[in-house]
Every structure is written in structure tokens, then in C-alpha cells.
Amino acid sequence: MNKPFPGPKTLRALERGIPLFKNGLRFNEAMQKAGSRGFRSVRQIVVSRAEGDFVWDLDDQRYIDFQNGWATNPLGNCHPEILKVVETANRRYGFHFDHPLRYELAEMLAEIMPGCALPRTNFEVSGTEAAEAAVHLALTHTQRQYIVTFGASYHGNSIAGKLLSGLGGDSAIHLEAWSGGVVRAPYPFSDNIPANLSQDQYVDFCLWYLEHHIHETMVSRDNIAGVMLEPGLAEGGNWIPTQAFVRGVRDICDRNDWLLISDEVLTGLGRTGKMWAIEHYDVTPDILVYGKNLSGGIAPLSGISARDDILGDNRHFNSGSTFAGSPAGCAAAIKTLEIFERDGIVAQAAKLGRIVEEITRDWENYDIVRQVRGNGLLIGVSFERASRTDREGENWWVARAVRGEMLERGVWAISDHEDTIRLYPALNMNEDTLRAGLHIMEEAIQAVSSGADIEGDSAAYPTGVAGF
Ligand SMILES: Cc1ncc(COP(=O)(O)O)c(C=O)c1O
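A: This is the predicted complex of the input protein with pyridoxal-5'-phosphate.
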């Protein structure tokens, strides 16, 4: 790739962010450090427009969109039918809390919940708020004090969201003292299994820890309100849990009278080729959390659904910020669900997921690829961690190098703070576009694998978003 990347207009915009956004003061130092260690400069874009399966940068370069607004555009970018109903709702209602669309949407959601067992809804704006609402509901319903979450989970970026999440490292530094009510249990990744355990032994260990170790060493099982589980550890790297683990968690919850909260903000609404990822395990949660896909990528909306006896009569539960369940958000969600039904979107996602599986089947043969995993269109490819030239313990540079190569070749994917590239194609992506994007990704893997570009990107231009 000889052309300078990114193009001049994109570069100018990225540089414009340096004095404006968070961590701008750190940028020059980070770049110097990266340069001295042989890293390439950052490969990053700024979107000038988006349509369907594609985005364009400020220099009018087109990219296949596997980033998908962090998995928020189930029907591709700027879906015209959703844009239209959002405009109509805004013109008609502006913003008011009570409007008929929230009733209509709540009825639709009740119908698509696992086993139709979660008929009651509480709307929120972001996934973070919805996850917090689920926790508050569990604590107030059970009148207990603790919630168990898992290592490498992500439940949001508010203070409670950070503390509920298990991203580790510095992700909740200086907040540690606030985390009194959260207990974290290990999650059985398919890769990175400790102490030469088999996958089954690792799952058994994690279940034992959840049911016994916490009680024996930390918190009485009678004071645990519930377990919050991602049935596909999304932001943590798109890890796919085994049947034994998810069913085991449900059984433990049942035995101990704990509520099971399924956080499906990212895995939900078709991403895994079923409406809810937890349905792959024949498990019904007690509370389900959703957001992202729900409103078709146009107007924010999230929420929780719960059993009648949990959300039907709980005078201490109180949640929902000003814009929760806005007319525009509800209109977008209703239209999204109508299109899901009309166009068989969940089945399309399952079919595309099978195509991805077929195309990526042999990728683990590349020396830099550690694991390819997926459930439908929740796809993660993790890369070699050990550096070829000792990069002071940073383990994500190979993944970053591949992601940078992909970007230069016209495919946009996510690799933020992990050794993994995450792909979130739209659930209705054109099949040829999906194939083309994966073909380009394989070329990028080959290029990095053969040493053509062994230097990963470091540091990111400050843009005000987390990661890039
Ligand atoms: C599982 C999960 N829960 C909660 C959140 C937070 O959602 P939001 O960023 O909309 O606040 C996310 C975001 O990625 C998520 O993946």
C-alpha cells in the first residue's frame, strides 16, 4: 500500500481533535514512544457518510463496514424506512414521555422474549443504564446486596457500569472502593485456558467458583441477588460460552434462588442468528437487557424485560432517565422489529454466520492467528500475543497491524484494547460484500503473517470515543 493513509482531509480532522478531546495532551508523547519502538502511525478514519453496508471517510474512500457503529446498525447504515418513521415521530410528538408508541413497542417486545416469559418492560436510553436498571431491579426484588458478574465482561461506562464490568487492568482504577456490591467470577474463555486444563475442566472450575468458592471465601450465597451474564462476551473479545457453562449458570441460579440477568445489549436482537443469544442454550433468564440493535442504529433506545412477579410490583425499583423510551426511539424500534419479521432478518444473520464460518475455517493455520470463533455474526479473531521484538508486554499489536492493513485495503473492523479483531457485519449484509470483506481480511492476515507489515499501530488520535 503506497498511498499515504489516511488521506489529507481525514488526517486534518484527526489532528484537529488533538487539542479538543480527552487524552489529546498525551498524544505526542504516545506517538513518539510508539515511533521509537517501531510502530507505524495510527490508521484511523473519520466517517463522512454512511449507507447500507458501507462508510466513506473524509477523503471519499469507501470501506466495507464490519464495525457497524459498535454493533448498532442491524439493517446497515441509515436504513431509509427507519429514518422516515423517526422523522415522522419527531414531527408529531417532539419529546414527551407518554405516547402510544411505547405501549405498542412494549407489546412487541413481550412477544419476542425467550419463551414469552418476560412480559414487562422498562425503557432506558443506553445499554449502560439498562444494565444498571437490571441490577437495581434484582437487588430490590430479592432484597439482597450482591451481584455476580464475570471477568472480561462489559456492562457499560458509567461508574456502576465500570464496576460491574470485569475488564480488569486500569479500567476501574480509583473506583475500586466503590465496588462493594459486585463479586466477579471467572469466565471460561475458549482460548487462554490456565494451568493446562481442558475446556471441560475449565468450565467445571468456573461453575465451582460461582457456586461454592464465592460463598466459602467472600459473600454468603443467601446475600447474592443474581448473576449478570453475557451469553457471548462481546466487548471482552466476542468469546462464545459453552452449553455446559450457560446451562450450569442457570442451574446454579435455580438452586440458590439467584436471578439470572442476561445482558444482551450487544448479542441481542439477531446478532447471533437467534433473536437472543441465550436461546442457543435453551435457557430463559429472569431479566433480559437490550439496547444497540433495538432502534436500528438511528435513535437511541434500550431497556430491560423481566418476569411479571419481578417487575410487576416492586415499589423500590426506580429507573429510567428523561429521554428513556423517546417517541423517536420507540418508532425506530417498532420499524426495526417489523423489518426483522418481514424480511426474516434473524434467519439471514444465521445464514451469513454460516458463510463466515465456512470462509474463516482454515484461518487458524496462519501462524499469527490463535483462534477464530463466532456465533452467527458475533465474530472474533484473536491473534498472536507474544511479540516478535518484545514490545514491553503489549499484546495487541499484531491484531492492530492486521486491522490497519484491512483499513488500508477498504474494510473497517474493531480492535480496541485486546489482541482480537471483532467483526459485526449488518445482519442483512449483502452476501458478496461479506465475502469480499472477509477476503480482504485474509489478505491482511497474509500480509502481516509474511512480515510485510509487522508493525502494529499504537496510540490513537483523540476523537472523544473509547478505543477505535
Ligand atoms: C453487553 C453490554 N452491556 C452494556 C453495554 C453498554 O451499552 P451502551 O454503550 O449503549 O451504554 C454494552 C456496550 O457495548 C455491552 O456490550
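Residues 199-217 form the longest helix (19 residues). Residues 388-392 have pLDDT under 50 and may be disordered.
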